[in-house]
Amino acid sequence: MTRDANEPARGEQRRLSRRTVLTTMGAVPVLTVAVSVVGAGEAAAATANINPSAPRQTIRGFGAMAHAAWIGDLTATQRDTAFGAGEGRLGFSLLRIPVGENRSDWSRDLATAKRAVELGATVFASPWNPPASMVETFNRNGQTNAKRLRYSSYGAYATHLNDFTTYMRDNGVNLYAISVQNEPDYAAEWTWWTAAELVRFLRENAGAISTRVIAPESFQYIKSLSDPILNDATALANTDIIGAHLYGTSYANFPYPLFTQKGAGKELWMTEVYYPNSNANSGDAWPEALDVGEHMHRAMVDAGFQAYVWWYLRRSYGPMREDGQISKRGAMMAHFARFVRPGYTRVDATANPASNVYVSAYRGGDTLVIVAVNKNTSPVSQQFTLSNTAASGSVANWLTDASRTVSPQAALTMANGAVTATLPARSVTTFVTSISGGTSTPTPTLTATPTPTASVGTGARVTYTMSTWNNGFTAAISITNTGASTINGWTLAFTLPSGQSITSGWNAAYSPSSGQVSAVNAGHNGTLAPGATVEIGFQATHTGNTAEPAAFTLNGIPCTVA
Asked: Is 7 a catalytic residue?
């Protein structure tokens, strides 16, 4: 994405003309409506069936871009609004920052990145250009000043990306990942890359980068840029995240069968968009903002993305207005971001129980989150039925419509795994409950699960990455099966240093919360084929000691620590 804002005005106008949104995304199938007794003016939708035991993708988070060099930095209050998870906050758990081509620019976004980390967010970065000394110009379809990275500078460019990673780490921000190039296929104002050039860099140089690598970040999720990566074993081995932007991408092009076929162990992120595709419109335009809710639903359900990242975080058309207040578009994002936390897993749900009604569901431990979008001009009576549970208890819920913005509503009651709710006209509602009964909170829980029958395995490699703040930290753990046989069921054991205590976790059951900890696989990730990797993690408190565990064992066998 090019810069916009108040510097030069042509940026806004240029982007409006060059990225025309596809306003027709295809007809939504109309399902047969099951009629029951409902309130006056309410339609009744088919039951939305949700199976908490049928996992789909693990969610990394929701967030946006900060770019102080182009539009100024966030204020301290705005940082807390963006990354705090309480009432009146966006609850963002991802922050994207730029990789400046000049080292002197690297500190511009540091303050916001550090505060985001303190509030539990994950930070990643994307470059627009390599250092000027590494770039050459060429004629690209009549653009005589087109830029590309010289092949002789590929190694130096990998060092540049690694140096940025090291700089951020030395200043308190452990980057989760770094991209090779922002929008290499729409780069009239920055650096072009072909698919072949990306594959060559990934094959020969990306392995030297000390954090996860993102590619290709196509501006329109053009598969011809990412297919060659998935089809090249060496390039794919050096790529951790397939990243994409969704400017004008039709819903029909959201699914990615080749990634499903070949992307095992890799992540799939949507790393930039604003939608609807017109920054002349206000972020508070209603009911236009509902389009964001549907877009996020489609990105999670149709595309299977694990991350959803907006363009500028603070902008007139973005999730936060220039005055620091949450916009209606921001409310759409908060309905996901505040309640669907990193490490939660999307679970199977009836996606479209009625025309213009979109439902997705997510599980974190015993917490179940349902996000329901009703784009109809009248209310809909919607029943939600949970498979494989007869849980009963309170269902907390939050609502956004024309007059309310992520507003907490009176609790509903679930009985025997079923609850019926009225979805107001043109609204988004988030429901949070516990599948074990009782009232739940929108945070992961430390739920013990039976230890599976496990094959011992022959060896594993563990990567342990901490992001710390004054009295807490998150730990991301990668476990790779380095043996020659499949591991069926695993327990990772380690000792937390004194003063550290786990408060929540994902993709494993942790017990106890301090001292000698065992992390037992979840139901969906217990099988580790040779060479396969599983990602788990937890959030914890500390009393000043931020040391890492000294050693790990997997099923009793010592691990190599990377």
From this structure: no
Residue 91: both structure tokens together:
């609850």
8 A C-beta contact, residue 217 and residue 178: no
Query: Does the pLDDT of residue 15 top 80, yes or no?
Result: no
244, two tokens: 């994409």
CB 481 within 8 A of CB 457: yes
The whole-number pLDDT of residue 539 equals: 82
Burial of 233 by CB count in 10 Å (0-12 exposed, 13-18 middle, 19+ buried)? Answer: exposed
Q: What angle do CA 142, 144, 146 make, to 5 degrees?
A: 105
Q: What secondary structure letter does DSSP report for 39?
A: -
Mean of the per-residue pLDDT values of the chain: 87
CB 42 within 8 A of CB 380: yes
Closest to 179 measured CA to CA, from 65, 271, 71, 309: 271
Reply yes or no on whether 183 is catalytic. yes
Please give the Cα distance from 557 to 562 (Å, whole number).
16
Smallest Cα–Cα separation from 124: which of 176, 68, 64, 163? Answer: 176
Catalytic residue among 183, 267, 294, 535: 183
Question: CA-CA distance, 87 to 5, in Å (whole number)?
Answer: 29
> Measured at the alpha carbon of residue 534, what is the angle toward residues 231 and 391, in degrees to the nearest 5?
120
Q: Model confidence over 422-453: pLDDT tens digits?
A: 999 999 999 999 997 544 444 433 333 333 33
Q: Are 423 and 379 in contact (CB under 8 A)?
A: yes
d(CA 150, CA 44): 61
| Cα gap 378→443, rounded to integer Å | 32
Q: Give the active site residue among 12, 217, 272, 294.
A: 272
